[in-house]
Amino acid sequence: MFRSVVRSLIAVAAMSAVAVGISPAQAAPVSTTAPITAAAPVVATPRLVEVDVQEFRRFDRILLRFRNGVPDLRARYVRAAFDQDGDRVRLPGRELLVLRLEPARARSLDQGVERVDLDNVRAFRLIEDRRGVVRIAVGLRERVGVRVSERRNLLIIDVAHRDRF
Prior knowledge:
By secondary structure, this protein is mainly beta. The protein is built from 2 helices and 9 strands.
């Protein structure tokens, strides 16, 4: 019984292949013992190439410019931040905002404190660049709302001057 069902299915498959213009030999799966190599697509990790800050009437803007796309961003306020060596990060300002970018790299940037002294953004510093994670600490005068937007190869972080934009 089982063999007759299998034979019927094979016959139906062969007739279907012939009906659409494919010979039964072409419809049969091809097997080989040769090694198969498939090139995985190379996806470059986004690289942070520039950090710029701008002051507007109601907010300060941090621009993160990348090559090879834009990574995911997580921004959060912390009481204390530590760099990749385990040292505590000290920046001007009463509040500390940490931007975590993943996957990303930023080895070409200087890792010193960049003082900018805008209305709310006081300074920023690259605090980590390893294992596909880049973290940037931002010193602020006060804890306020943060708005994030994305454009091609650019992350835009707007930090309000007061409680809102």
